[in-house]
Amino acid sequence: MNRKTLVLPAVIGLLAPVLAACGGSDSGSGDSGAIVVGTTDRFTASKDAPAPLDPAYAYDVGTWNILRQTVQTLMIQPRGEGEPVPEAAERCGFTDTGNERYACTLRDGLTFAGGNAVRAADVKYSIDRARSLKADSGVFALLSTIDTVETQGDREVIFHLKTADATFPYKLSTPVAGIVDPDDYPKNKLRDGFDLEGSGPYTLKADVEDGELVKAEFTRNPDYKGALEVNNDKVDMVSYKDADAMGKALDEGDIDLMTRTMSPDQIRELSADSDTDIDLVEMPGLEIRYLGFNTDAPTVKSKAVRQAMAQVVNRSALVSKVYGSQAEPLYSLVPASVTGHSNSFFNKYGEPNVTKARSLLNQANITTPVKLTLHYTTDHYGPATKKEFEVLRDQLNSSGLFDVGIKGTPWDTFRPAEKKGEYDVYGMGWFPDFPDADNFLAPFLDADNTLGSPYDNSRIRGTLIPESRREADRLSASSSLTDIQDIVAGDVPVLPLWQGKQYVAARDDITGTAYALNSASTLQLWELGRGVSG
């Protein structure tokens, strides 16, 4: 029968599985073949994004889920609770009291999949390359606190930081800090297409059709040396056009596991079904959804318009109608379970109130109804996105203060247009690079932010973000973090909507599913194995 496995956190980031009874049926994909994972992520090489898998460019959860299997980083986020641990490194740590000098020693005998030795100079090359290329994805901003990278011999790497950054070990665990072979990755340009080599637990063979990666074949790297225990020899990741096609493939035994992105209906059905050989694993997640604003656009340049939207939107009704128990209303960019969270938007606006919203617009001499288009992506965040934006449209229009239309666009067109500032208001999601409040604030508010947002608050950038990073004890950073969230609630350069749980559905002979995703929504394919159904 079906089992719904709950993975509950004792503290943030801790994944502790609680298992129920299981059912019995043979997997349709065969006991000796690859474990097959389904996804609705689309991987396209285009004129606007010719290098989707280059670590110096990639900056979305789908491409990072490929990179994390193949490109090794000095540090890695642990399976459960705690700070990053050494991966390609044997050891790492701050060597001063001010958190401004960070040193790592590489493991002995590391090699790239092509056979070349991994040296300290390669780490420096990889980091400096990402910083100098400054890809328009904005991923290089994760390395913004680095001043210089120094090497001593073949195994010692020293990072000299511009300012104290207690989050720096986390940043070294992200794919932008992935170690690449200079023979394969040119210094002055991105590596186009889907070729990818590293020193991680798997090698990659990309199956490409018409400029799109349709299947990623991960084969265990026999020369891998690192902190991870690899529990399988091969995993295939297959990209499906939508959640229905992916769900059908799981039902028919064509795949063994699916995760991104199941529909709310699929999750409800799997949770309720007591007679199937497919198990649903539910775990806490740090995914958030929000509206972004081009604060230079005439329609939303006035802060009063953005504040009025914040005053009208009913998050509880939105979540209830679209996602049910699979999500929770969010009143800050920082999720409720992360240290430093503050309900800043609720504190400022309280419950939805049309009268207060009208007053905000009247005081700013804004003519109503304000005509807007809300843009969303049709194929990146799951099939419920359209319904979500229909609910948002209806909420805003029913106030009488707005005349809102919605428009959906595929991700490979949506994301470049958003970065170019072509949308006044747009819907985005965020899967954290690492589970710290800084990573829910700086990527949207700092210089070179991932949205390309023109919003610039000098106190946030010049004082509060640097101030918060000086605190190794993240609870001690709460005052600075709260101030940032309060400023965001007042200026509304972004409007947080909800945070969601994460789910994996797998045939019941697949083991390790409780650890298939970590708290930052990272796929950990090395955790998967094949056991006995029943």
TrEMBL record:
Endpoints of the signal sequence: 1-20
Entry keyword Transport: yes
Domain Solute-binding protein family span(s) in chain numbering: 83-449
Cellular compartments annotated: Cell envelope
GO biological process terms held by the UniProt record: peptide transport
GO molecular function, one term: peptide transmembrane transporter activity
Pfam families from the UniProt entry: SBP_bac_5
InterPro entries: Peptide/Ni-bd, SBP_5, SBP_5_dom
GO cellular component assignments: ATP-binding cassette (ABC) transporter complex; cell envelope; periplasmic space
Alphabetized UniProt keyword annotations: Signal, Transport
Keyword Oxidoreductase: no
Domain of life: Bacteria
Protein family per UniProt: Belongs to the bacterial solute-binding protein 5 family.
Protein known as: Peptide-binding protein
Organism: Streptomyces cahuitamycinicus
